[in-house]
Amino acid sequence: MLFISDIHGCLPALERALEWAQRKSCRHLILLGDVLNHGPRNPVPEGYNPPAVAERLNQWADRILAVRGNCDSEVDQMLCQFPLMADYNNLMLGNKRAFVTHGHLWNDTQLPPLAEGDLFCFGHSHIPMARWQEKRLMFNPGSITLPKGGFAPSLGHFDGKLLTVMDLDGNVIEQASINEF
């Protein structure tokens, strides 16, 4: 599965991410929020085209699990043929529970209730992360559109054992095994 966060309506960045989804034969896309809108504090990205982003993602609608970001709204949901308005979701990665959210309500310093060995998947900060902290795996694929912290645009990939953050050229930024605990 491929993890994409903080698209912010940028069609060229989404196209590059979807190339990775096809290259890695991903069956599912996990969208960690801020899908269509650039947000009032962000610059309008080059290639900003929210209707085209929605149309492109709708082609994957049956393979998307999405959560709402702080820039997503009911108006955005009107364009998307997949549920977009949940604040969080839970999914199983192997035999591990993954709590999936955008990161504006819960984040790596304000966690929801998690057991040892659980995974916390979030976006929002635009800063990539894949590491164990206090026996919980913190995973943030960064942003494909508006990276921060000096990082390149990035996304996440899960191959059944490893959660990997990589830039859009395929260079690994961080990687962690889900079976460490």
From TrEMBL:
Its cofactor is a divalent metal cation. Keywords: Metal-binding. Residues 2-154 form the Calcineurin-like phosphoesterase domain. Coiled coil: none annotated. Its EC number is 3.1.4.-. One of its GO terms (molecular function) is metal ion binding. The keyword Metal-binding applies. Belongs to the metallophosphoesterase superfamily. YfcE family. NCBIfam families: PRK09453.1 (NF006988), yfcE (TIGR00040). This is Phosphoesterase.
